[in-house]
Amino acid sequence: MTVALPQAVDLRVPILQERYGLERVRMHYVEAGRGRPILFLHGTPTSSHLWREILPAAARHGRAIAVDLIGHGRSEKPAIRYDFEEHVAVLEAAVVALDLAGAVLVLHDWGGPLGFHHALTSREPVRAIAAMETFPWRLDWRDFPAAFRLAFRAFRAPRLGRLLLQRLNLFVDRVMPATAASGRGISPEALAVYRSFYPTPASRRAVRRWPMLLPLDGTEPTAEVIDFIERRLPSLRVPLLWLAAEPGAITTPARIEWLQENVPGVMVRRIGPAGHYVQEEVPEQIACELDAWLPGVLAGAPGR
User: Fold this and answer.
1) Cα–Cα nearest to 67, from 56, 51, 88, 89
2) Chain centroid to CA 202: how far?
3) Is 133 a catalytic residue?
4) Beta carbons within 8 Å of 95's beta carbon, 6+ residues apart
5) Are the beta carbons of 68 and 74 closer than 8 angstroms?
6) Of 72, 87, 276, 289, which is the active-site residue?
7) What angle do CA 105, 27, 177 make, to 5 degrees?
8) What is the pLDDT of residues 89-118, one digit of tens each?
9) Model confidence over 232-257: pLDDT tens digits?
């Protein structure tokens, strides 16, 4: 098995320098393989650790890199706003610093909006996109499993969200294991790793921020950019592989139908029973699908 080596890079991010006086921020990542870049982006409250059983399959075909978003995993966790604009700026700095232009993107959760935004705005087109359990569109409360609607409404309340997510760390301790939909579930060992990344309330700022940015009511700071992504998605002329779990959590059958009707050439593949953190429940199926798909898209020309 190919070993993914942990590394780190110091990034100059102008928006963070202007807002907070931060000269540099450190981003951690793991990398394996050689060749054309394949960039893995996670969401909350995970990290590059989410891709540990999938990265080796990708590394057989190219240079597979999974980053820890700023405020997550082993990356630096400065006292910043953690708004979408800041995450975009850090990601763009990482793409330049790590020579990831024209990469294949593999996306999950909030890594999806970040990755699709990059694909739609970058001067150099990405080569292809694989996505799972993510949302390049405006969400609706009906998209959430009923069991989580009340919790996420609480997470979005400023004081209550601070208590539940920063003080009590409920995203890792309760939400992640509760989303599982297979017999495998999320192992205690994996949860312990994620928990280790956020040992204090201050280290959980980014984790707390993401639920407040979910594009659910139309008033969030992300509403405009998510609408932009949704409008432009049908014009994204790159291969798109969508890996759909059953039942999943936020990618509903109606969303899959929308993709098939509106995005030319989208390939939808079923990966079996899993909830939201599909990489923890069906990693072998995801690795198998990528193993079959990557040779073709890496051999083709990138485009948009």
Assistant:
1) 51
2) 22
3) yes
4) 39, 101, 103, 118, 122
5) yes
6) 276
7) 70
8) 999 999 999 999 999 999 999 999 999 999
9) 999 998 999 999 999 999 999 999 99
